[in-house]
Amino acid sequence: MYSDKEGKRAVELARAAIEKHLGGGSELPSHLPEVFREKSGVFVTLNRYPSRDLRGCIGFPEPIMPLAGAIEDAAVSAATRDPRFPPVSLGEMDRIVVDVTMLTPPERIDHKGPDDLVSKIVIGRDGLIARKGFYSGLLLPQVPVEWGWSVEEFLSHTCMKAGLAPDSWREGNVSFQRFSGYVYGEREPRGQVERMELG
Fold first, then answer.
1. What pLDDT does residue 193 have?
2. What integer pLDDT is reported at residue 199 of this predicted model?
């Protein structure tokens, strides 16, 4: 669990890392709370304002580096290396809101079939990772909430994100992990940061 103060610092760090990388001269926040030294998975999402259309999203599902470094790396990557979009310009940051999702470690979902799998997933609580061989795909917990998906639709879209057929999850040869996310984001560009409730 992250405090609102830590969430606010996470979003400030993400924006500062992007603007510094783009030549804006922003200084990274100093004296970060102790939790920023602990390893954590994280995703940084950039949305256009006010439409909230996606502009970039990249992160680390596994806790492979300290939270501060993961936020900085993911933020710069979301702005400049998301293959779905051209790189963000410094001037464009005035029209972008920044969200940071801090993740719990993924845990395998053991199940006895498709119906059992569906029963173990809660929309608004769980993010999903689908894996089959070399294929993998991840969707954050806020995605099915934003799109109004059922659990079945969430599973299908996670499979598609992995490059698999939508109904692959019914066949029993795709493994799934779930994780929770604590999401903090700007209400408007450089504006107030608030926790985003997913339920």
1. 96
2. 60
pTM confidence score? 0.90
Give CA–CA dist 164/134, Å, rounded. 11
Which of 172, 194, 179 is CA-nearest to residue 117? 172
SS3 assignment, position 168: helix
Contact 75, 14 (CB under 8 A): yes
Task: Summarize pLDDT for 16-54 with one digit per residue, the tens.
Answer: 999 999 998 778 988 899 999 999 999 999 999 999 999
Domains of the chain as residue ranges with CATH: 4-104+181-195 (3.30.700.20), 107-179 (3.30.1490.150)
CA–CA separation, 14 and 22 (whole Å) = 13
- Contacts with 145 (C-beta within 8 Å, 6 or more apart), sequence order: 123, 124, 198, 199
Find the radius of gyration of the CA atoms of the chain. 17
Structure tokens at 194: 């608030």
Listed in sequence order, the residues at least 6 apart from 30 whose beta carbon sits closer than 8 Å to its beta carbon are none
